[in-house]
Design brief:
The complex is a heterodimer of chains A (849) and B (523).
Chain A lengths: L1 H36 L24 H11 L8 H9 L5 H10 L10 H9 L11 H8 L4 H16 L16 H11 L2 H5 L4 H6 L5 H11 L4 H13 L2 H16 L6 H20 L5 H14 L7 H22 L16 E6 L2 H13 L3 E6 L7 E4 L7 E3 L8 E7 L4 H26 L3 H9 L2 H10 L16 H4 L2 E4 L3 E3 L2 E3 L3 H14 L9 E8 L22 H12 L1 H9 L9 E8 L4 E4 L7 H29 L6 H8 L17 E4 L14 E4 L10 H8 L1 H17 L1 H4 L7 E4 L3 E4 L28 E5 L2 H10 L1 H8 L4 E5 L5 E5 L5 E3 L2 H10 L1
Parallel strand pairs in A: 1-2, 1-9, 3-5, 9-10, 12-13, 12-16, 16-17
Antiparallel strand pairs in A: 3-4, 5-6, 7-8, 10-11, 14-15, 17-18, 18-19
Chain B lengths: L9 H12 L5 H29 L2 E2 L3 E3 L2 E3 L2 E2 L1 H24 L6 H19 L4 H19 L6 H32 L4 H9 L6 H17 L7 H4 L6 H9 L4 H8 L1 H4 L3 H22 L5 H21 L3 H20 L4 H7 L11 H22 L7 H21 L6 H29 L11 H23 L7 H11 L4 H9 L13
Antiparallel strand pairs in B: 1-4, 2-3
The chains are: A alpha/beta (849), B mainly alpha (523).
């Protein structure tokens, strides 16, 4: 009886205790997860898309984020002083810009600044930023060994193997056990620490739990980190291995899109913390260690998010002034004279991707032939597909990374029966197998010697042909393993079918819906021209690990070819047209949609699937092709200026860049991107925007319920801000948000690059992409979005979407409204409030200009 | 006394001159000058190679005094390696024109490249030992300036430091060896030295010691176990430097042994050591390489392995084949480094469904039989009597293992008749090329090198050891994927990924993780 009673009595107590422990621990893990959300993902090189490196910080104001990043990374987040100084000197940045910037900043207690103060204090160098320290940093002070570098190199070595997608012939065992478990098993075996003289490290690791959550909790209590500092400490730990952390975050990305939780990054955090904990255990006996560590913790405390130093405040004002000065010049260029064109039928309508590189080409095309109308729309044309190449079972997601592909489209052959298909696919797989076997022969332990002695001399030829850009280092993956007559017959298959055990193709009803949505969203104006070009884009480079970064971001780091061709095929389909007519969209029977690809490296434009046209159309097509060639030439001439090509034969110089294996700047990419204009094309037609603007066509008058505006603001606007902030981050602090010097890049695990032989995985863009050796080819300006739509409609959308509100209210992007006269009339301040863009702004400009 | 052969000295002198001029001229003119020089260098090389093809090996007179000065040795070996370096120079300099575009020290980089090329070319045409040592040290110092081209990079400085330590040890050994040689033979001239070495009745102890010095210096220079650590980290500098290093400078070790082959053979024990160290390095590095996931790091391991194999060939006395290996490897590796950015494309083009089939002993056995048949048939017809030396049989068997691997991998996924035939055809063609190249090498280089003495017991033991270890590694390589899930393998993997920690020891010795104390620790 008594025992039972005791049990009964004690049970609730135990439960309470357990619950208390659980809540405490889950709170720790909650903080850890929160810190994990601060890390922006990085996409693997095979589809390297732009990511906003400040993504996890957008809930903070730009000011606060700048402050935090200074502590976490020691990062700089604003434009360098030389640029500002020069801007002030040559009159680009006016006192009024600085004044406006001061006014636009959130007020800070105790800090009052005037323009003169700012220019005065600007000359002096601010105090160096003080990075938060973790345990290994302290240990480095106390021993004669560099614990921080050791921990970085150990983690990087291990992650290189763990995240490897097939570079090493022998992959890491035990991967499937979970990242932390796999690591601790590895680390307990690894003798490196013992050998280089970090005594006791491995012994201390053996005391650490194999469960990541328990490991984190224990470490937090052992390291005496108070609750208020926890998140900051976690963030600092992740920041110290930010590249691999970004890769881990990417692994969780697709799961997160499905709404599932992914603990890869949490596991990596546990690894970093385990090293800190083991380091603490083995070093903290030293006199003064604990004191220094608690000082470090105090730093976490006092330099929290709340307090913003005057240096950061000033820096951010100057950055804002720099942004304003550029926006002022852009705003002044909009004018009344541009009126809506008459709605007569054009010779052709061409829809391009919103990409800044399209702007130059569109302008050139309009110059060449005024009867061609151009549009801007996200380059996947509203068709989110997974495109499966011949001979493969899975393909890349060809849609913005914010979406998941809705349809599987397989590559097929024009005019081929099933038998031929199977034959081609079989042959391709066979060739790949042979190639793979050959790769083994080339690189395995014993056979590599035989390989070298037999095949070594053949590299004389290969070195010459590759060196003189006559051949590609390796065949292009798209066409490898296919015969030349097959290559030109490849096309996306829209009809329903099977690929492996999955359905491919798009059902008729869905095709009609997709077509309807696409046509509406791209604001294509009736009457439709005989030719409607849907122009995706892609790049052509050789020997460039970051090649996919130059392809279409809206197509998830692939070329837009497949999307454009699918869209054109759907829109040309007779049944779809009938369906569209039923929904009120009449497409003239003589209108033909053409899938095209704009090669952004060479500015050549290829038209697909237009071989069998009626003779009446083919002559028109020929003249259109001539215009496109001419436009390409014009575009190259303009780009040559920006790229510093002074040769006589610009076309040849540019085309060489696309085939040269030693080329580190094959094209400018999206460098220079600084504004996003959402308006009908006639608002900007004739304005030379210098390849610095994303252009989205939009007629708000046609947009019932502002559904399309909502789409634009939640998808393309976010994506353009990602691209803009990627370039921004890579420019203001290339060490932390960029990938350093391209000539040192060492591709690791087929996913990313190291700079040199070790160190963290590098994220972002290489220096070569943002700097030409003399000048920055990208100016670090935050994106200015300009939308022609009623302010109340814009406000409504901002109110509905928290993430948009954060981007705007926290000054990550700027927003302007364009009025019915085609002038930029209002600037969004924050909290749904707007201020008028004063007339004086424009007049100041004219005095400068 | 000036002779026509001295013209070849224009190559190093030209590069040297250019390296001093480059920083003072405009970048575009710098490119013009380096292009001109690289083609001129190639032209002179071909001219001299033609000369030696007609006249046989030539040792020029000395331009200098008392054994000190410049002289050239022109023979199939020096001209082959000189052609290699001139060819690589054309490519890496051309590559650097675009690759470093925009670097504020672009012309300085080109100048340093030229300086390194100058000293390397001077090395390979050396006609006397003092010049050889001078060029040897100069090459290493010139390379050092390239390795720390980005001085602010901590990792670059550390890697260069390790390289520096190894190189100075090698320099000391070589200086020591050369001093002994000059003392023993009373001349600095290489050709004279070899002639008197051939007539030695009894080998003086200085010569033995010198051989040991030469061999150790060669092992250090070509990153042989356990001093390979320095090569693993020196990719902290632009890719063309890596290409030049891995395709040119790393060969200095092998070249040293080949150049002094006439002397080195006088010390058979040393040869055995070179063979064993080389063979071990070849397998060790080749094995570790399989776990490396960073492309340039894997290539560095591969170079170490290839150098090891070349050392093995040297140690076994197969000098002509070692020359073949040296040159062929350089060409391959130059391309591998320069095209290392294409790895993503390579990955995408070899994407095939993974095979789930376990390796079957029968299949391996069949592959061995097929590979052996291919090799035997072709070598019997092509090499004929040459095949019948112990060393050639050994190398042939290692080749068979390589082909076996190719066949096994090709037949992994239950292939059809077509791909089986295709694989066999590939194996056949590879065998034919292998044997033809061997025949050519024997024809061209054999007259240059001392004929190997009849194999003794120890030679056979070394050969047996080599064959045994190579076959074990080959079999392991095929079966390891089947045992990936065992605890034993996960343990071995840890050590393998770390290259069995030899680099960590090196780090410790070199103080790579050492920091100056900022806080006075009271412990």
């Amino acid at each position: 009886m008594t025992t039972e009673n005791q049990l009964l009595e004690s049970a609730p107590e135990q439960k309470i205790m357990q619950k208390a422990v659980q809540t405490l621990s889950s709170k720790v893990i909650d903080d850890a997860r929160k810190a994990c959300q601060r890390i922006a993902p990085v996409w693997p090189l095979k589809h390297f898309v732009a990511v906003n490196p400040y993504m996890g910080l957008s809930e903070f104001h730009f000011l606060q984020a700048t402050e935090v990043l200074r502590h976490v990374h020691g990062a700089n987040s604003v434009v360098d002083k030389d640029t500002i100084a020069e801007g002030i000197r040559n009159g680009e940045i006016l006192d009024s810009d600085i004044q406006k910037a001061i006014e636009s900043m959130p007020a800070l207690r105790g800090i009052e600044i005037t323009v003169d103060d700012l220019i005065q204090s600007f000359a002096q160098d601010g105090n160096e930023s003080k990075r938060w320290l973790n345990v290994t940093d302290i240990a480095t002070r106390f021993s004669d060994k560099d614990w921080s570098r050791f921990s970085m190199n150990q983690i990087s070595k291990w992650c290189s193997a763990y995240f490897d997608e097939g570079q090493a012939f022998w992959s890491m065992p035990d991967k499937e056990q979970g990242i932390f478990e796999a690591w601790i098993k590895f680390a307990r075996q690894d003798r490196t620490a013992d050998i280089i003289g970090l005594k006791g490290f491995r012994r201390c690791l053996s005391g650490i739990s194999t469960d990541p959550e328990i490991c984190i909790e224990e470490a937090i209590s052992n390291l005496c980190i108070p609750e208020s500092c926890r998140e900051a400490y976690f963030f600092q730990c992740l920041a110290s291995i930010s590249g691999w952390a970004a890769m881990a975050r990417y692994h969780g990305w697709s799961n997160e899109l499905d709404g599932e939780q992914d603990d890869t990054l949490l596991g990596l955090l546990a690894i970093r913390i385990a090293i800190d904990a083991a380091c603490f255990l083995s070093q903290s006996y030293q006199d003064g260690f604990i004191e220094q560590w608690s000082d470090a913790i105090t730093d976490y405390h006092t330099h929290g998010v709340a307090r913003i130093s005057s240096k950061v405040y000033e820096d951010c004002i100057l950055q804002t002034a720099y942004d304003f000065s550029s926006q002022r010049r852009l705003i002044s260029r909009f004018n009344h004279s541009l009126r809506s064109p008459e709605s007569i039928r054009k010779q052709a309508q061409a829809v391009f991707c919103i990409d800044v590189r399209s702007e130059v080409y569109r302008r050139a095309l309009e110059t060449v032939n005024g009867a061609i109308e151009t549009y801007g729309f996200a380059g996947f044309f509203g068709f989110p597909i997974e495109y499966v190449p011949l001979g493969e079972k899975h393909g890349g997601s060809q849609c913005p990374v914010l979406l998941k592909p809705g349809y599987v489209i397989k590559e097929s052959l024009r005019d081929a029966d099933e038998e031929e298909h199977d034959e081609v696919i079989g042959l391709r797989i066979l060739r790949r197998r042979a190639l793979k076997a050959w790769k083994y022969f080339k690189q395995s332990a014993v056979s590599s010697f035989s390989f070298v002695e037999t095949m070594g001399f053949s590299y004389v030829v290969k070195l010459v042909t590759d060196g003189f850009a006559l051949t590609r280092t390796v065949p292009h993956p798209k066409i490898q393993g296919l015969d030349s007559d097959i290559i030109s017959r490849r096309q996306p298959e829209v009809q329903s079918g099977m690929i492996g055990d999955r359905h491919s193709g798009i059902e008729l009803e869905e095709r009609i819906t997709l077509a309807e949505n696409a046509l509406k969203a791209m604001s294509l104006q009736a009457p439709y021209a005989p030719f409607v070009l849907l122009v995706g884009h892609g790049s052509t480079t050789v020997n460039n690990p970051h090649a996919s970064g130059l392809d279409c971001g809206a197509c998830g780091g692939h070329t837009g070819e497949a999307n454009a061709r699918v869209a054109a095929a759907v829109l040309n389909n007779a049944q779809v047209r009938v369906g569209l007519a039923e929904r009120g969209i009449e497409i003239p029977s003589d209108t033909l949609f053409l899938g095209c690809l704009h090669d952004t490296t060479t500015d050549e434009l290829t038209i697909f699937d237009a071989d069998e046209l009626p003779p009446s159309m083919s002559s028109h097509l020929a003249s259109l092709k001539k215009d496109l060639l001419e436009a390409g030439k014009l575009t190259r001439q303009e780009r040559a200026l920006r790229m510093g090509i002074h040769k006589d034969n610009i076309d040849k110089a540019i085309s060489l860049k696309s085939s040269d294996w030693s080329q580190v700047r094959p094209e400018l990419g999206l460098a220079g991107c600084s504004s996003f204009i959402v308006a009908p094309r006639y608002r900007t037609a004739g304005l030379n925007l210098g390849g610095e603007s994303f252009l989205h066509s939009y007629h708000w008058q046609d947009d019932q319920d502002f559904k399309i505006l909502e789409l634009i603001m939640t998808a393309p606007m976010v994506v353009t801000s990602w691209i803009n902030l990627q370039y921004y981050g890579s420019t203001v602090d290339n060490e932390i948000f960029g990938s350093g010097n391209k000539t040192l890049h060492n591709v690791v695990g087929q996913v990313g690059v190291l700079e040199g032989n070790t160190g963290d995985l590098r994220v972002g863009l290489p220096k070569q992409s943002i700097h030409d050796g003399e000048n920055f080819i990208h100016k670090p300006l935050r994106l200015a979005v300009m939308i022609e739509a009623p302010k109340h409609a814009i406000n409504n959308i901002i109110a509905q979407h928290e993430n948009i509100r954060q981007l705007l209210d926290n000054d990550w992007i700027y927003l302007y409204a364009i009025n019915e006269d085609g002038l930029v009339s209002d600037r969004y301040i924050s909290g749904m409030r707007w201020e008028e863009v004063s007339v004086s702004d424009a007049s100041e400009l004219s005095s400068v200009a | 006394m000036f002779e026509i052969y001295h013209l070849v000295l224009l190559i190093p002198l030209g590069w040297l001159l250019i390296s001093f001029c480059l920083p003072r001229v405009k970048l575009q003119s710098a490119f013009t000058v380096t292009r001109f020089m690289s083609y001129l260098g190639m032209f002179l090389t071909v001219l001299m190679a033609a000369l030696t093809a007609i006249e046989g090996p030539i040792g020029s007179s000395l331009l200098g005094w008392n054994g000190i000065g410049l002289s050239v040795r022109i023979d199939a070996l020096s001209m082959s390696v000189l052609s290699l370096i001139s060819f690589i120079a054309i490519l890496v300099l051309r590559y650097s024109e675009q690759y470093l575009e925009g670097d504020e020290r672009h012309s300085e980089f080109m100048a340093k490249m030229c300086l390194t090329i100058a000293s390397t070319t001077l090395l390979v045409i050396s006609g006397n030992v003092l010049q050889f040592v001078f060029a040897w040290i100069a090459t290493s110092l010139a390379l050092h300036t390239l390795l720390v081209f980005y001085k602010k990079r901590h990792e670059a400085v550390i890697a260069a430091k390790k390289k520096w330590l190894t190189a100075r040890l090698g320099d000391a050994l070589l200086l020591f060896a050369v001093a002994l040689l000059v003392d023993a033979f009373g001349t600095t001239d290489i050709t004279t030295m070899f002639a008197s070495a051939a007539n030695l009745v009894e080998i003086p102890s200085q010569v033995h010691m010198a051989c040991v010095g030469i061999m150790l210096a060669a092992l250090l220079k070509s990153a042989q176990f356990p001093t390979h650590g320095w090569l693993l980290e020196v990719m902290e500098t632009p890719t063309p430097v890596s290409a030049l290093l891995h395709a040119g400078i790393i060969n200095a070790g092998g070249f040293l042994i080949l150049r002094f082959a006439d002397l080195v053979v006088l010390n058979p024990a040393g040869m055995h050591v070179v063979a064993i160290v080389g063979g071990f390095t070849a397998l060790f590095a080749g094995f570790v390489m399989l776990t490396q996931s960073a492309v340039k790091t894997a290539l560095a391991w591969s170079t170490i392995a290839q150098m090891g194999f070349m050392m093995l060939q040297c140690g076994l006395g197969a000098f002509p084949i070692a020359v073949l290996h040296l040159i062929a490897h350089s060409l391959y590796k130059a391309h591998a480094f320069l095209s290392s950015g294409s790895i993503i494309d390579v990955a995408r083009t070899t994407k095939v469904p993974k095979s789930k089939i376990k390796s079957q002993p029968l299949r391996i056995l069949l592959s061995v039989v097929a590979a052996s048949c291919m090799y035997l048939a072709t070598s019997y017809y092509i090499l004929q009597e040459h095949v019948l030396t112990a060393v050639n049989i050994t190398l042939g068997l290692i080749f068979v293992m390589g082909i076996t691997h190719l066949v096994v991998k090709s037949l992994e996924d239950n292939p059809g008749l077509y791909s089986m035939m295709r694989t066999l055809l590939t194996a056949f063609i590879v065998s034919v090329i292998y044997n033809l190249l061997h025949l050519a090498c024997l024809f061209v280089y054999s007259p240059l090198f001392p004929q190997p003495a009849a194999a003794g017991l120890i030679d056979y033991l070394v050969i047996a050891l080599t064959l045994l270890s190579f076959s074990v590694i080959m079999i392991l390589q095929i079966i390891v994927p089947d045992y990936q899930r065992t605890t034993l393998w996960s343990r071995i993997y840890v050590h393998l990924l770390n290259g069995f920690y030899f680099n960590a020891w090196f780090d410790r010795l070199a103080g790579s993780y050492q920091v100056k104390n900022t806080t006075t620790s009271q412990s």
